[in-house]
Design brief:
Order of helices and strands: EHHEEEHEEEEEHEEHEEEEH
Largest sheet: 8 strands, mixed
Cofactor: Mg(2+)
Radius of gyration: 17 Å
Strand content: 25-35%
Family: Belongs to the UPRTase family.
Structural class: alpha/beta
Number of strands: 15
Helix content: 25-40%
CATH architecture: 3-Layer(aba) Sandwich
CATH topology: Rossmann fold
Low-confidence stretches: none
EC number: 2.4.2.9
Catalytic activity: UMP + diphosphate = 5-phospho-alpha-D-ribose 1-diphosphate + uracil
Keywords: Allosteric enzyme, Glycosyltransferase, GTP-binding, Magnesium, Nucleotide-binding, Transferase
Bound molecules: 1-O-pyrophosphono-5-O-phosphono-alpha-D-ribofuranose, uracil
Mean pLDDT: 97
Shape: globular
Distance between the termini: 37 Å
Amino acid sequence: MAFTVIKHPLILDKLTRMRKKDSNSKVFKENLDEIAQLMAYEIFQTIELKEFEIETPVAVTKGYKIAKDIVLFPILRAGLGMVDGIVKLVPNAKIGHIGLYRDETTFEPHEYFAKKPQNIEEATVLVLDPMLATGGSANMAIDKVKEWGAKNIKLVCLVAAPEGKENVEKHHPDIDIYVAALDEKLDSKGYIIPGLGDAGDRIFGTK
Ligand code: PRP
Ligand code: URA
C-alpha cells in the first residue's frame, strides 16, 4: 500500500539524540518512547471512529470512540521500547509479542516466542520494531500476524534501510509502512548506515 516517512521537527530532534553514540540507555529509551508516541499520533489520524450519544452535565451531544480494537505486536526485543509511548495514547490497546533474533552471519530471523490476544481479525494491528534492516524480521512477523488472521496491518519502524523497505514491499504489498527515517544502506554486517547501532543492545544495555 503506502510507505510513509513521518517527518516532524520533534521526531528529527529526538532521532538525532538516539543516533549519537554517546547517548546512554536512558536517553535512548526516553527518545524512542517519545518518537513512538509522536508516530502513533500521525498514524491514527485516519483511524475509524464510532459515534454515540453522551450526556455532558448540561446537554446531550455526540461522542466518539475508536471503532475497532488496536493490537500492538512488538518484535522482541527492541520493539518493546515502542510500546509504552503508543499505549499512552491508546490505553486500551492489546499487546501481543513476537520474539525473533537475527542470526549474526546469515541475517536470517529465528522465532523463539509468539503470543497473541484473541480476535485480531478485525483489529488494527501495528507491528513494531525500531530497525528495518534486511526486512527479514519484519516479513516473518507480518507472516505470523497474517497467519493468525489479521487483515489491517501496519508496520511501524524508526529507521529503515532501502533494502528492508523493498523486501517488505515485495513480500507484503498490502500493508502500510511508517518510518521516521529512510537511511542510506546496509553495511556488510547487516547494520543500517548511518543508523543508530544495535537498538536492542542500546535499550537493554547488553553490550
Ligand atoms: C534487530 C532489530 C530487528 C532486526 C532487524 O533485532 O530489532 O528486529 O534486528 O533486522 P532485519 O531487518 O535484518 O531482520 P535482533 O535480531 O538484533 O534482536 P534484538 O531486538 O533482541 O536485539
Ligand atoms: N538491527 C539493529 O538493531 N540495528 C541495525 O542497524 C540493524 C539491525
